[in-house]
């Protein structure tokens, strides 16, 4: 039987507590591997255009999921090379614009120190790309709503494991836990992970040669297009609501890159409305 740890602490990451300085928004344009990360102006919570979610209003369950899919599937795709520079903008450290904040460790690291070295940062697929076998081809494999900068060796420790509670603490990333079939992220990003996984389940519905991604209440899903554990992800969504860093990230992706949003960052209550 898996061990369950104490409830999530109320603390949030430094990024959630910092006010971001206003900047002039950049005009969205195709990203090239050498293009610089351009800051955009911070925005308030739920700062989607007024009519962005109009087709989802008043809906619940499968109808809400279908409506949200129709809204967020309208997006611009990046290549896997373009993801490097996109993450330098989406995950920029608000305390140091030359750095990015790594998902699992919380470490602030030079944005240019990316690559395959053990202490460099690389591109983590929060929905493991082997779950549905979509690889790094343009589409789910390059969707920056679920791609995050992570320490390369911690990324390797997570591997393609499902998300659940319990396990031993990851030595290189205190606060994260893992065992043979699952990974538990640190408290400050538990909700972020849940909302990224559930975004993928709404965005990719088996169209355009992409797999139909769905959450389930299992672990050890292997190559099936499934990710668990849904009951735990739902709990994390409630325990760790969207903070300033996550909301800004959603805005940057919408304003600069893919031009679609993660609806669960704007409306975390929709998780329970769909997966009751």
UniProtKB/TrEMBL annotation:
Protein name: Endonuclease
Signal peptide: 1-28
Coiled coil segments of this chain: none
Gene Ontology molecular function, alphabetical: endonuclease activity
Pfam families per UniProt: Endonuclease_1
Residue segments, region Disordered: 25-49, 131-186
Keywords for the protein's UniProt record, in alphabetical order: Endonuclease, Hydrolase, Nuclease, Signal
Protein species of origin: Streptomyces spirodelae
Record InterPro entries: Endonuclease-I (IPR007346), His-Me_finger_sf (IPR044925)
């Amino acid at each position: 039987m898996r061990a369950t740890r104490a409830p999530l602490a109320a603390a949030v990451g430094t990024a959630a507590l910092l006010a971001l300085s206003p900047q002039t928004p950049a005009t969205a344009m195709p990203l090239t591997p050498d293009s610089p990360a351009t800051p955009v102006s911070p925005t308030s919570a739920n700062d989607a255009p007024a009519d962005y979610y109009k087709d989802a209003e008043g809906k619940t369950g499968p109808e809400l999921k279908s409506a949200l899919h129709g809204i967020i599937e309208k997006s611009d795709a990046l290549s896997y090379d373009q993801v490097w520079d996109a993450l330098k903008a989406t995950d920029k450290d608000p305390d140091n614009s030359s750095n990015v904040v790594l998902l699992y460790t919380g470490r602030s690291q030079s944005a240019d120190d990316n690559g395959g070295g053990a202490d460099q940062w690389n591109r983590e697929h929060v929905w493991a790309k082997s779950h549905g076998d979509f690889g790094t081809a343009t589409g789910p494999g390059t969707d920056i709503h679920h791609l995050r900068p992570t320490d390369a060796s911690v990324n390797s420790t997570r591997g393609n494991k499902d998300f659940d509670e319990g396990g031993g603490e990851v030595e290189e990333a205190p606060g994260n836990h893992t065992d043979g079939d699952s990974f538990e992220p640190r408290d400050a990003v538990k909700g972020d992970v849940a909302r990224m996984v559930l975004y993928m389940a709404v965005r990719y519905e088996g169209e355009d040669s992409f797999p139909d991604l769905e959450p389930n209440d299992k672990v050890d899903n292997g190559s099936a297009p499934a990710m668990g554990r849904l009951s735990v992800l739902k709990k994390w969504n409630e325990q760790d609501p969207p903070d300033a860093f996550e909301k800004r990230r959603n805005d940057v992706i919408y304003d600069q890159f893919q031009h679609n949003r993660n609806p669960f960052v704007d409306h975390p209550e929709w998780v329970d409305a769909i997966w009751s």
